[in-house]
Amino acid sequence: SENSLESLVSIGNICRSPIAEAVFRKLVTDEKLEHKWRTDSAAVSDWNVGRFPDSRALSCLRNHGIETAHKARQITKEDFQTFDYILCMDESNLRDLNRKSNQVKDCKAKIELLGSYDPQKQLIIEDPYYGNEKDFFFVYEQCLRCCKAFLEKYH
Q1: Which residue among the candidates 16, 25, 56, 145 is catalytic per the annotation?
Q2: What is the extent of the structural domain holding 60?
């Protein structure tokens, strides 16, 4: 069956999750596995719906040769029913997602912390919004390690 990944769900879908989505999409493309994965990202809240990612997230991705055209959206009931995996950034994401998924009949998504795949055991991917360029780079590195490990496990 076709695997699908909702790459990182975060609160606003403008910093961490678009980075994770773009990183995973590039990994999948490099491995020639695009036909097997449907990758997206979404927010738990509706704060930033329709907005492009934070300019620091875009610049961090660009520095690593990755482009993204993602616009923030909020997670939907259908996401829980169609995606195989919903990977999130931190404990509050996890709590909110589990709560939302309990209201969805036939939820098939496995909801996990992306950080649970980190070989360096950094479980939480901290929000870099109030930080600086270095914090965005750190998030990128974490997402890269986790997405690689996740892909190795499931492809």
Answers
A1: 16
A2: 6-154
User: What is the tens place of the pLDDT at every residue in 55-108?
Assistant: 999 999 999 999 999 999 999 999 999 999 999 999 999 999 999 999 999 999
Residue length, the chain?
Answer: 155
> What's the burial of 89, exposed, middle or buried (CB within 10 Å: 0-12/13-18/19+)?
buried
Enter the pTM of the model.
Answer: 0.93
Dihedral angle, C-alpha 24, 38, 46, 122, nearest 10 °:
-30
Q: Is residue 10 part of a domain?
A: yes
Output the six-digit token pair for 141: 């590195």
* Active-site residue, selected from the candidate residues 25, 90, 127, 145: 127
Q: Known catalytic residue: 16? A: yes
The total of structural domains in the chain comes to 1
Any catalytic annotation for residue 135? no
